Structure to design on (752 residues):
């Protein structure tokens, strides 16, 4: 009875909706599953951990809904703080407000009962109510893991919000961001910006739009350098890679950056140990076929290939000294040395010196 | 070994200590001089420090004489259930000062059932500085019928503070001889004499380890694989195979131990926190159960780390013992008791190849590795560095 009444008052003019989605909220990085083209799918599944993309998807859904009905309400709830009856109350249509968007955050933490309630709504949706389920893609419990599959099967519209991990994807994101605010950027500037700002999409998006606003549209490397400099992210692996290839200056510079950025000393020490161990194992095993080495030593082929390249210039006595240096620094960063930063610098130096020794 | 009767039956190869303690016990029973109010038992791991402490407590609490081993006083004191015997056995890394303060209060009372109020601190080397100081006054001048029994690996200031040590009568336990251990294994645990004498000769004087070696084929296999390492380190690539073997065995041992206990503990905790309940209020109960469960997981993880380290340490001690044999064979021409007599041929072979200095360097590398692991260095990294030295010299 209730829902029948609701339907008569708020049947939306569907054809109009798509064109009225505000431009500013679209994000080219989200790949909408082709199976669901109707924007009115009552259940939307935001799959992935990238907060910025999740937030934008929610904004876009909300804007679409507001475009139909300016009075559309929205509710945000963490799934871990929700019980099935509360969910039932949220999604049941009310007499007064026509449209509603319910956002359930952290759906991977759901328990079995709540998952049943969510899929129950997906089976029998109420008109004018859009349920947005943000799910990290993982989940500890069985119910949490199975929820995305169940919703997909019930025809939920899936928006991928996975973390951007590949450098190429990140560059594309920056380019898209610049284009979105009607600017243009060249390849070198993209690389410089990512170097300086880091990998956080939110910060990259903010920096990109700010740069476009500051430069008037054409962003080049010089403009990026004018506003941003330095390095935002240096990992222990970058330090270790330079150290085992004998690049003392580069390794020490990267190490200083890493220390300035607050990379934990222990991580750098572990990365050094891992790099030296990999080189030692590859050079001890002998041979030059990376695929054979990879299967023999149980490491991915790319790692074996890289280690083979790095192993040039190392001798067994030097490797022994380097292994001792990494073991010493591992104790140093865990409280033996008075200054962990100095201990790391000395270890880098010892590794570079060890690379030069041969007997 | 003839005087091992009554409560002293569990003490292996400690004739002098037993003589002194039983004299003190009869002095205490007779009311003559010769009893002391604070004792410190020192000796290497496995020599039976806490067994001595309990036996002495039993001799003091004996209702029939001076340690008959039959009466209820002896039984309960040895089992640790006697009302007037307080045993402090630290489960954590150290004994906190608060625990010692309450213990001092307890020690000031008169015995309720037995003759003496006995306080046993089984790992006195784990007393923090504050805890040791809190104990000082009570150890110096205890009430009439109170006895303090402290156990520590040695009376070195690193183990026991000098102020505590100077207030105690020190009883030194020696490493029990191999024959005595073999005898105990045969008589008490019913192990056949041949296995028992082998286990006694390779256990390094640790009675508990001897029993495990005699009874558990897995422990034997583990020791064999560790002692094969020195002979198998030929090429640099062997180092990494041996690292995998050493660290992998320690990891799997720890994980098999935790697999056996963790799930049962977790299930017990869940039941205690009311899991599986339905109805009003279960959601809130479940949330607090979650946090208790996380606490338990943390404790289990640290226990597993500890188990892994202990198992690795055992392997390293065996390895160090082997190189010590090499050094001893080299220096003396094999006229000393070896740590691993069943591996005499291997150590003699290696003694022919290594110089004394390089054998010593290897022993040092092993000891450094033990120290590094204690300092939280990742076991794999420390063991790699050590095996590199063992391979190269």
């Amino acid at each position: 009875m209730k829902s029948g009444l609701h339907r008569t008052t708020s049947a939306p003019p569907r054809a109009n909706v798509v064109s009225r989605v505000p431009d500013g909220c679209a994000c080219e990085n989200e790949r909408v599953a082709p199976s669901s083209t109707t924007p009115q799918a009552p259940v939307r599944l935001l799959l992935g951990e990238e907060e910025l993309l999740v937030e934008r998807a929610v904004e876009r859904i909300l804007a679409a809904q507001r475009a139909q009905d300016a009075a559309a309400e929205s509710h945000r709830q963490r799934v871990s703080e929700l019980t099935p009856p509360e969910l039932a109350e949220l999604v049941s249509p009310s007499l007064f407000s026509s449209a509603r968007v319910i956002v359930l955050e952290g759906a991977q933490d759901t328990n079995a009962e709540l998952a049943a309630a969510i899929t129950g709504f997906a089976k029998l949706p109420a008109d004018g109510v859009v349920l947005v389920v943000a799910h990290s893609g993982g989940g500890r419990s069985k119910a949490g893991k199975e929820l995305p599959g169940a919703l997909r099967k019930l025809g939920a519209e899936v928006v991928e919000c996975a973390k951007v991990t590949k450098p190429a994807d990140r560059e594309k994101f920056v380019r898209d961001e610049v284009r979105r605010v009607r600017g243009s950027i060249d390849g070198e500037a993209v690389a410089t910006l990512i170097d300086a700002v880091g990998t956080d999409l939110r910060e990259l998006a903010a920096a990109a739009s700010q740069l476009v606003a500051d430069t008037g549209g054409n962003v080049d490397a010089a403009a990026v350098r004018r506003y941003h400099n330095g390095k935002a992210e240096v990992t222990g692996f970058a330090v270790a890679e330079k150290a085992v290839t004998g690049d003392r200056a580069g390794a020490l510079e990267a190490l200083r950056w890493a220390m300035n950025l607050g990379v934990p000393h222990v991580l750098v020490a572990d990365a050094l140990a891992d790099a030296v161990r990999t080189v030692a194992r590859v050079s001890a095993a002998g041979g030059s076929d990376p695929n054979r080495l990879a299967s023999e030593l149980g490491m991915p082929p790319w790692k074996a290939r890289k280690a083979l390249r790095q192993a040039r210039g190392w001798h067994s006595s030097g490797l022994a000294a380097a292994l001792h240096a990494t073991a010493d620094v591992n104790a140093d960063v865990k409280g033996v040395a008075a200054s962990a930063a100095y201990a790391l610098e000395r270890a880098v130096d010892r590794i570079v010196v060890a690379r030069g020794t041969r007997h | 070994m003839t005087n091992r009767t009554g409560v002293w039956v569990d003490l292996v190869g400690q004739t002098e200590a037993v003589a002194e303690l039983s004299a003190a016990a009869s002095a205490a029973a007779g009311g003559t001089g010769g009893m002391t109010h604070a004792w410190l038992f020192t000796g290497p791991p496995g020599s039976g420090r806490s067994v001595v402490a309990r036996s002495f407590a039993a001799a003091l609490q004996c209702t029939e004489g001076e340690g008959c081993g039959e009466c209820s006083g002896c039984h309960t004191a040895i089992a640790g259930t006697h009302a007037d015997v307080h045993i402090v056995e630290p489960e954590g890394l150290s004994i906190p000062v608060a625990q010692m303060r309450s213990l001092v209060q307890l020690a000031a009372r008169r015995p309720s059932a037995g003759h003496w109020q006995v306080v046993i601190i089984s790992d006195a080397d784990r007393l923090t500085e504050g805890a040791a100081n809190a104990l000082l006054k009570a150890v110096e001048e205890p009430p009439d019928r109170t006895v303090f029994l402290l156990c520590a690996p040695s009376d070195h200031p690193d183990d026991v503070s000098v102020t505590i040590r100077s207030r105690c009568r020190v009883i030194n336990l020696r490493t029990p001889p191999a024959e005595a251990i073999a005898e105990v294994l045969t008589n008490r645990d019913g192990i056949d004499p041949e296995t028992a004498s082998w286990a006694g000769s390779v256990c390094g004087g640790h009675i508990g380890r001897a029993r495990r070696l005699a009874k558990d084929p897995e422990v034997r296999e583990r020791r064999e694989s560790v002692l094969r390492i020195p002979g198998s380190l030929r090429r640099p690539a062997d180092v990494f195979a041996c690292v995998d073997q050493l660290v992998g065995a320690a990891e799997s041992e720890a994980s098999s131990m935790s697999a056996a206990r963790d799930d049962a503990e977790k299930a017990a905790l869940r039941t205690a926190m009311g899991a599986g309940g339905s109805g009003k209020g279960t959601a809130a109960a479940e949330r607090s159960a979650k946090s208790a469960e996380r606490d338990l997981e943390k404790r289990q993880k640290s226990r597993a780390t500890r188990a892994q380290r202990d198992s690795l340490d055992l392997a390293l001690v065996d390895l160090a013992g082997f190189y010590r044999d090499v050094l001893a064979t080299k220096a003396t021409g094999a006229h000393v008791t070896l740590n691993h007599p069943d591996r005499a041929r291997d150590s003699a072979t290696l003694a022919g190849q290594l110089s004394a200095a390089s054998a010593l360097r290897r022993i040092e590398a092993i000891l450094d590795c033990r120290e590094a692991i204690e300092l939280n260095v990742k076991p794999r990294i420390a063991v790699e560095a050590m095996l590199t030295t063992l391979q190269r010299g």
Notes: The CA atoms of residues 104 and 125 of chain A lie 15 Å apart.
